[in-house]
Every structure is written in structure tokens, then in C-alpha cells.
Recover the amino acids of this structure.
């Protein structure tokens, strides 16, 4: 009995999986995290978009999580991967089928001449039975296949998490861009009003005999130039609104009314920091590569098992009779119980080549993991540098915008007093408009740096529970739709 149990349990050939290790730096070169910073970041990792302190952004993210079609598609593919895993695992168990048949068979009477007298060529047949086939997984080929598909399913989970992070990052980036573009539109309208005031001023100075028609024409051209900046900004606002609606799985115009009212751009959160080891634990792309390495390692076992014999137990029980009442008699019984074995002898080196291929794929998967970790560390380092440097740049741009506004005010006063030419006013206006826009874009760069840094740290999926999506219609409805479209 013990020997039979050991025979059925078998063994699993091929290498046992060991998680890869990566060389992790002690800390980031650009910033040494304190314990307080690490605790603050950990609390914000689950829903980092809340750090921007914008209720509208929170609502957009929630609607995107519920309605985004890419996430739903990824969910369905994950369901398919799990179903495939169950299909593979089902081969570990006996495959049982029940059959039944009844009717009349007619045999040819031309096969023997002359035909035997009194023998009918018609034959009534009644049959029922059961067939069982059980593939004994003595060397672990099926179990390694299940192991590989388990890892594939887990890799699919991480892939969907990565898609979630990129989608949420796109929502946050588009929303921040929308609010900053609305801010730019406000700046443009303010500058149009200022340019209109400048035109009226030049016309007044001209009527007083202190100006020229050249100055009036220059002021008119400046006003028209400022007016021409409005339409591109309005187009950009509409496009961003459409993009946000599509990300949420809604019609493009769904958010236009909701987002039409300008609002202040989101608040740039404090610098999120984390230890390098946390990046390995949180980034979906790293976790996906680790699972792919586990899958490739299991595939080596599948290939090695092909070198060993395979055993199958086909069993059948099929009583047959010409009369129904005879089906349950001993004389109608037909059955078979066999043990089939297939031993690979010579395949021209093909099986050994499969093993080499599987081992090479496993090594490639391990190197891909190492490469992904390396690039992840580099990405975080880059995001930290950009976050810190763009913060300094944004402060400088704000100071420049204030100085440009002061210079414009002084240029207008001097021109009104006849102490300077209108060219100074035009130069100051252009500089002030460019300075305000540059300051707004500088703030946008800081917001996008923060978004990119959170994503680089692998934050965001921890606080989102992505349930498996149900099928879009039930089986009965599918049959009804198929019948409705069936050609006559």
C-alpha cells in the first residue's frame, strides 16, 4: 500500500524555484530618508492622489477605477488565465465519461457470396457504459505545468496592478494639466484686458498729440496677439476633459460641464520618500518579472519530465446487447483495464533541446528581473532629482513673474508720463505674460514630478481592490442572442 501511494504521488523533476535576489542600495543618493518621512510616505502609499488635496481629483480617480475599460479587459484576461490553470489542473484527476447508444445497424451483404441463408443484415444495438482515463503524473509534468500557470496568473495580477498605476497617473496628470491650462486661460484673459487698456492709453496719448499712429498700431497688434492665445487654450481644456471622461469609461463630453468651472490647481504634496527595499516589494513590474521567472523555472521541470516515461490507466465498462433487457446481464458485459506506458527512446535530440530552451528562457527571465530592478532604482533616482530641482525652478519662476509684473507697471507709468517709448511697454507686456505662463507651467512640472515619483515607488494599487469582473451577459442571454442572429 505504501509503495502504491508513493507511486501515485510520484516526484517532480526539474529545479525547485528560488526567488531571485537583487543588490539593493542602502539609500537613495539624492535623499536620505528619515523615519518620520518613511512613516508618512507609507501612510500615503495606498491613496497617493489624496495628497493633492483636491476632492474633484479623488472623484475622478474613483470613477476611473470603476469604469475604465482597459482595467476591465485586464480583469477578463485574468479570469481566462485562471480558467486555463484549472483546465491544466483537471488533468491530474481521472477523466470520466458516461456514454449511451441505441439503434439499428445494417451490415453489407456483398462481403460474402453467396449470402448465408437465414442471417439478417440488420442488427439492433443497445449500449451504455463508462470510460475512465487517468494520467499518472509520476515525474511531475502536470504539476509543474500547474505551477507554471499559477505563476502566470500571479504575473497577470501584477500586470493589471501596473496598468492601474499608469491609468491613475494619467488621470492625475491630465487633471493637473486641465487646471493649469484653465489658469493659463485666466492669465490670457487678464492680459487681453491689459492689452486693451494699453490700446486705449495709446489712443489717448495720440489724441493729446504726444503719440504716433505707429504706437497705436503696435498696441492694436499686441491686443490681437493676446486674443489669439485663447482658442488654443480652450481646445486644450476640451481635449483634456474628453481624455478624462474616456479614462473613466464614459462619453467624451460627459465631464465638460463638471470641469468647465475653473478651479485652483491641486496642491503639490510633500516629497514622498521610501527605502529601496520598499520599491522591490511594491512595484508591480518587479513583482511581475519575479513571477515570470517562477513560471519559466517551472517550465524547465515540464521539459525535463518529457524525458521520462509516461503512464496512463485507461478503463472502460461498456455492456452491449441487441435487446434492452439483456443490457444488464453478465453476458453483455464488455470491459477493459489496462496500464499504458510510453517511454521516449529516440527523438533526434528534440527533447534535450526543449530542456535547453527552457533553461535558457528561465535564465533570461532571471536577468530580466535584475534589469527591471536596476531600471526601477534609476527611475526613482531620476524622479527625486527632478522633484527637487523643479521645486527650486518653480520658486525662481514665481519670483521672475513678480518682477515682470512690477516692470510692466513701471513701464506703463513712464509711458503715460511721456518719459519712455511704447516699445518698453510692449516688451514688458510680453515678458510679463511669458513669466506668468512659465510660473504656471513650473507648478505643473512639480505636480507631474510628484505623480511620477509616487508611481516610481509603486504606490497606489495597495488601496484599490480590483474584483474579478463578471461576464458581460449570462449563458441564457448568450443563447438568446445567438438564436436571434442565426440565419434562416
Amino acid at each position: 500500500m505504501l509503495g502504491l501511494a508513493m507511486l501515485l504521488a510520484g516526484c517532480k523533476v526539474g529545479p525547485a524555484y528560488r526567488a531571485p535576489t537583487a543588490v539593493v542600495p542602502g539609500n537613495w543618493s539624492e535623499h536620505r530618508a528619515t523615519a518620520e518621512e518613511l512613516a508618512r510616505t507609507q501612510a500615503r502609499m495606498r491613496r497617493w492622489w489624496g495628497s493633492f488635496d483636491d476632492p474633484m481629483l479623488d472623484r475622478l480617480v474613483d470613477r476611473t477605477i470603476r469604469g475604465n475599460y482597459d482595467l476591465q479587459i485586464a480583469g477578463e484576461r485574468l479570469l481566462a488565465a485562471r480558467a486555463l490553470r484549472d483546465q491544466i489542473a483537471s488533468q491530474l484527476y481521472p477523466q470520466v465519461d458516461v456514454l449511451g447508444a441505441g439503434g439499428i445497424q445494417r451490415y453489407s451483404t456483398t462481403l460474402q457470396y453467396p449470402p448465408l441463408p437465414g442471417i439478417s443484415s440488420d442488427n439492433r444495438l443497445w449500449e451504455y457504459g463508462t470510460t475512465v482515463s487517468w494520467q499518472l503524473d509520476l515525474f511531475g509534468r502536470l504539476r509543474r505545468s500547474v505551477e507554471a500557470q499559477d505563476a502566470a496568473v500571479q504575473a497577470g495580477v501584477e500586470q493589471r496592478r501596473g496598468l492601474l498605476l499608469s491609468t491613475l497617473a494619467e488621470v492625475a496628470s491630465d487633471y493637473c494639466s486641465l487646471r493649469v491650462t484653465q489658469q493659463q486661460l485666466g492669465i490670457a484673459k487678464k492680459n487681453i484686458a491689459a492689452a486693451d487698456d494699453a490700446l486705449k492709453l495709446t489712443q489717448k496719448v495720440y489724441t493729446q498729440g504726444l503719440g504716433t499712429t505707429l504706437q497705436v498700431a503696435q498696441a492694436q497688434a499686441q491686443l490681437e496677439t493676446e486674443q489669439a492665445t485663447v482658442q488654443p487654450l480652450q481646445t486644450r481644456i476640451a481635449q483634456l476633459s474628453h481624455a478624462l471622461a474616456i479614462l473613466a469609461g464614459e462619453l467624451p463630453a460627459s465631464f465638460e460641464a463638471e470641469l468647465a468651472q475653473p478651479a485652483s490647481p491641486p496642491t503639490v504634496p510633500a516629497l514622498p520618500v521610501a527605502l529601496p527595499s520598499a520599491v522591490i516589494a511594491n512595484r508591480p513590474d518587479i513583482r511581475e518579472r519575479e513571477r515570470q521567472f517562477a513560471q519559466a523555472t517551472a517550465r524547465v521541470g515540464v521539459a525535463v519530465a518529457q524525458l521520462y516515461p509516461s503512464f496512463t490507466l485507461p478503463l472502460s465498462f461498456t455492456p452491449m446487447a441487441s435487446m434492452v433487457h439483456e443490457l444488464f446481464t453478465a453476458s453483455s458485459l464488455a470491459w477493459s483495464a489496462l496500464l499504458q506506458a510510453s517511454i521516449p527512446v529516440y527523438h533526434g535530440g528534440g527533447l534535450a533541446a526543449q530542456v535547453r530552451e527552457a533553461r535558457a528562457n528561465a535564465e533570461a527571465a532571471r536577468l530580466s528581473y535584475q534589469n527591471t530592478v536596476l531600471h526601477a532604482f534609476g527611475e526613482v533616482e531620476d524622479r527625486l532629482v527632478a522633484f527637487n530641482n523643479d521645486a527650486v525652478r518653480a520658486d525662481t519662476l514665481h519670483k521672475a513673474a513678480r518682477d515682470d509684473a512690477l516692470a510692466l507697471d513701471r513701464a506703463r507709468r513712464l509711458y503715460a508720463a511721456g518719459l519712455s517709448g511704447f516699445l518698453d511697454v510692449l516688451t514688458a507686456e510680453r515678458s510679463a505674460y511669458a513669466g506668468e505662463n512659465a510660473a504656471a507651467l513650473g507648478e505643473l512640472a512639480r505636480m507631474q514630478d510628484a505623480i511620477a515619483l509616487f508611481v516610481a515607488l509603486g504606490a497606489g494599487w495597495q488601496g484599490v481592490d480590483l474584483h474579478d469582473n463578471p461576464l458581460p451577459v449570462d449563458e441564457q442571454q448568450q443563447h438568446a442572442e445567438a438564436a436571434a442572429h442565426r440565419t434562416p
